[in-house]
Amino acid sequence: FPRFFPILGYKVKLSDKEADIYRYVLEKEGFTFEDMLCRLKQLKIKGDYRKTFLKAENIHIKNGRINFFLPKGAYATMFLKNVFIQ
Fold first, then answer.
1. 46/72 Cα distance (integer angstroms)
2. What is the pLDDT of residues 12-48, one digit of tens each?
C-alpha cells in the first residue's frame, strides 16, 4: 500500500493507477472523472494527500465512551468503524 493517497482536487497530480481508482468509484456513483475535476476547480477545491495508515493514540474506554487522539487530517469515523467491526 502507498504511504499517502491523494484527496481529489484540481491541483493534485494523480498517477495512472490513482486516476483509474477515482474513475471507477466516480462512475459507479454516476459521475464522470472529468466532470468532477471541473466541479472541483469551480469550487476551488485544491485537493490534498492523506496518510493511508495512522495510529490512534491515548485510547481510553470508560462507561461506554471512547476517547482517542488522531493527527490532523485523519478520519475519526473510519477509525470508529474499524473499532466496531472488529
1. 17
2. 999 999 999 999 999 999 999 999 999 999 999 999 9
> From residue 8, how far is each of 11, 31, 36, 50, 58 by CA, in Å?
8, 14, 9, 11, 31
* CA 58 to chain centroid: 22
Whether the model clears a pTM of 0.70, i.e. scores above it, the answer is: no
Please tell me the distance from the alpha carbon of residue 57 to that of residue 11, in angstroms, as a whole number. 32
Contact 57, 69 (CB under 8 A): yes
Residue 27 amino acid letter = E
Q: Where are the domains of the chain?
A: 4-51, 54-86
Cα distances (Å, whole numbers) of residue 58 to 37, 63, 71, 84:
38, 16, 12, 18
